[in-house]
Amino acid sequence: MNEYPTSIGTTDATSIRLLGHDLAADLMGQVTFGELAFWLVALRRPGCGELRVFETVLVALADHGFTPSAIAARLTLTGAPESVQGALAAGLLGGGSRFLGVTEDCGKFLAEALASSEGPLPLPDDEEGWDELADMAIRAHRESGRLVPGLGHPVHKSGDPRTPVLFKIAEDEGVLGPHLRLFAAVGRVHPMILGRTLPLNGAGVCGAALADLGFEPDMLRGFALLARAAGLLGHLAEEMRRPAGPGIYEQTDRDVVYQPRA
Questions:
Q1: E-assigned strand segments in 4-90
Q2: Which letter does DSSP use for residue 100 in this model?
Q3: Which domains are present in the chain?
Q4: pTM here?
Q5: Rg for the chain (alpha carbons), in Å?
Q6: DSSP string of 39-62, one letter each residue
Q7: Distance separating the N- and C-terminal Cα atoms of the chain
Q8: Cα–Cα distance measured from residue 65 to residue 172, given in angstroms and rounded to the nearest whole number
Q9: What is the pLDDT of residue 71?
Q10: Closest by alpha carbon to 76, among 192, 232, 219?
Q11: Residue 239 to residue 222: CA distance in whole angstroms
Q12: Using one digit for the tens of pLDDT, what is the confidence trace for 223-235?
């Protein structure tokens, strides 16, 4: 007989057990959704400071206006109003290298830089040391032909308002770790390397914060999608009340110009 082990949850005729606890008796009304999401992935309960930072990340990533993901969700609902699940999925499928995926990309970039520094030498213990590590990481990334994730924003040209808030909360809660410290150093040294100053964006700082909470870089995009699902549900609810999708479709259809192949 095959066995499929799990540490997540099981059910029987009279109970549901989740993470080793009785769902109805021990968890419902006792833990927040954010705490449960953290616990399900980390398989440990977060501390109070960790939970505050984690839920701050979820709030920061929930919505950013009429982004491509929101437009995709709204237009899908326009074409299939019976399929909320399809519209939500359409919005989430756009989480890639330009939107939402930066959270994962930045976490991986920082983790790789920190891993390369964890030989016989300890991590930096002052700002100068962090700046040197950031300098090396940025140059290595650029030499390989890659953009440095977490830098720049299409709207917040002079500074992403989410970034300083998350840094402060992490510091206040005592969970400002090496990924956030290195990310801050990236913000300080990149102008001398790139020749221009770019803001540290919210998706990047969220990736750094999640990595400092101990999550593996490959999981970080999942948390961005979890947060954005809430924002997309809000867009879909609004779309049902006050549709924007038909107007977006009609305007696009009118403005399409057919060009014969040369």
A1: 9-11, 16-18, 21-22
A2: B
A3: 101-218 (1.10.230.10)
A4: 0.93
A5: 21
A6: HHHHSSPPPHHHHHHHHHHHHHHS
A7: 64
A8: 29
A9: 96
A10: 232
A11: 25
A12: 999 999 999 999 9
